Every structure is written in C-alpha cells, then in structure tokens.
Amino acid sequence: MLGETLFDRTTIPVLTKTLDASMLRSRTIANNIANINTPGYQRVEVNFEDELKKALEGHELQGMRTDDKHLPLGQSDISELNATVSKPVDPTLPSGVNNVDIENEMAKLAETQIEYNFAAKFLKGKFSALNAAIQQKSIQ
Amino acid sequence: MAFNGMFSGLEISASGMHAQRIMQNTISSNLANVETTRTEEGGPYRRQFPVFSAASDQSDVSLINQKVKLHGVTTNENHIEIPPTEYPRDERFFGNGVNVDEIREDSRTPKMVYDPSHPDADKNGYVAMPNVSVIEEMTNMISATRAYEANVTAFNATKSMLQQALQI
Asked: Do B81 and A35 count as a contact with CB atoms less than 8 A apart?
C-alpha cells in the first residue's frame, strides 16, 4: 500500500496524536482557568507522554488480535493511542478545595501552545517534503 | 450545553470571561451603592455576589470516574503488559467551563453608623448602612480582573493554535 509507506510508517501518526493531545490539553487548561474562582473545583490533567513513550518503545512480545474480544497483549499501536484526562489528587491540599494554581496553568498553557506549534510546523514540513518528492522539486 | 467541537476551547474560555464580567458587574453595583440606604425591598442595599459552579453534565463526571474494565498489572519488568481493554467512551469530555448559578445577597448585618441628621436615622440616631466593605470589593475586583485576563490569554492561545492547524 502506498499510503502505508508514505504516511503510516512515518512520524506523521505520532505528530497527529501529539496535535490531538496538545489541543485536548489546551482545552483542559482553559477549563481549569475558567474555574479559577469556582469553589471546590478540582483541576483536570491530560496524560499523554507516558502512553506515547510506551507505544514508541514497543515490546518484544506482541499479541496478535484477530477478534475484537481478544485481550491486547503487549503494547498498543500508535493508532490506538489516546490521551486520557484525570483529576490528580494533591495530598498536601485538603480535599474539596479548589486546587487550580494559576502560575502552573499559565506555564502549562505556554508549553502546550509551543508544543502544538512545533508539531504543526513539523507536520507541515513533512507534507511539503512529500509534495516536493512527488513533484521532483527541491524543498524550499 | 456540550462543548465538544473544534472551538470548544474558545467557548470554555468565553464562559470564564463571562463569569468574571458578571463578577465585575456585581462589584460595580456594590461600589455604586456603598451608601444606599433605601431599596425597593426596604432597608439598606445589601452586598451582592455571584455564585460560580463548574459546568459539566453528570455523564461527564461518570466518564472521568469510570474505571477500565480489565487491566493487567505489571509487577515485574518481564511481565507482558495488558493494556486497558475499555477506555471511557469519550475521554475528551471533562468539563464545559464555568456557570454563574445565581447572584446572591450577602446575609451579613448592615453597618450601623451614628448620623442623627440622616433622614433614615432611627430614634437613637443610627443609620443602617449597606454591608459593603470597599476594601473587600477592591480586592475582589483585582482578583476578577486578573482572572479575566488569564481567560483572555487562554483564549488567545487556543486561537493561535487553531490558526496553526489551518497552516498545515
């Protein structure tokens, strides 16, 4: 399959997942910031990097799945990778107290924005390289 | 209201800005009425404040808390990992910004000020003044302004990310 060699086996799926996760993270940060003065609000966090690391490392033994009811064995594929949201519990804070830290959220927001821009630029570069190859041009 | 589309990040920030603007409006009203002794309900003006709540459907909360059905635990590095078999239906559902539930009246008792010449003074010469503390309102105003600005920053960040996506 042409699509497989051109897209699936490249870094494009990873970049796409990174874009997805960054956008999701910026939404959770926006939600945390919107609720900065809401009594009892618990901040939401996105978990992605650890899952991505596991998916990229691969595993020596990988189970084949020929049926939906089969248990996945070994690490999951990049295409099945999903960013998840969780509400982390800070043991130093009493429960039920708003745990949004504005400095932390703003720092994460800047970080996420840069991460997203990086992935978007990188992806754009990938596509223009492919385009250049198709049209026998040099990359500008 | 479920914000689940492309622009949900913007809508979440907008709900935050809206809430802080309501906060500013009530503060302005409190400051404007800091010496109002007559109201429609009778008695002095009472301090008003908005009550915020995190907007999310019940289903959202259950999705976040929903546990994975089957999950292998690796206690040894030679163990083969069994990834979770069932993720929440849509883990992207986590909250929809902030709601302004209601505008409440502060139940603190009015301040009694001795001013016998005031037309609303009681027989001992005391006037019931609004339970508004100017200093408290000013601090709340700073907090609301900064929170509003934080929401604007988040809004602009999401906006520039969306514009980046259009550049791909």
From this structure: no
More confident residue, B149 or A89: B149
Cβ of B157 and A112 within 8 Å? yes
The kind and range of the H/E element at B160 are helix B134-167
First to last CA, chain B: 30
Q: Pairing mode, if any, of strands A84-86 and B48-54?
A: unpaired
Give B8's contacts (C-beta < 8 A, 6+ positions apart). Answer: A27, B96
CA-based diameter of chain B, in Å? 88
Strand partners, A47: A84
> Which A residues in the span 20-79 are in contact with B, Cβ-Cβ below 8 Å?
22-24, 26-31, 33-39, 41, 44, 54, 59, 61, 63, 71-76
Residue A9 is predicted with a pLDDT of 78
Range with lowest mean pLDDT among A42-46, B78-82, B154-158: B78-82
On whether the CB atoms of residues A12 and A123 are closer than 8 A, the answer is yes
Whether B67 has a pLDDT exceeding 60, the answer reads no
Q: HSE on the CB side for B53, CA within 13 Å?
A: 6
B64/A86 touch (CB, cutoff 8 Å), yes or no: yes
Residue with tokens 């000013």: B138
DSSP result, A45-99: EEE-HHHHHHHHH--SS-----STTSPP-SPPPGGG---EEE----TTSPTTS--
Residue pointed to by tokens 């635990």: B73
Residue in A with minimal Cα distance to B88: A84
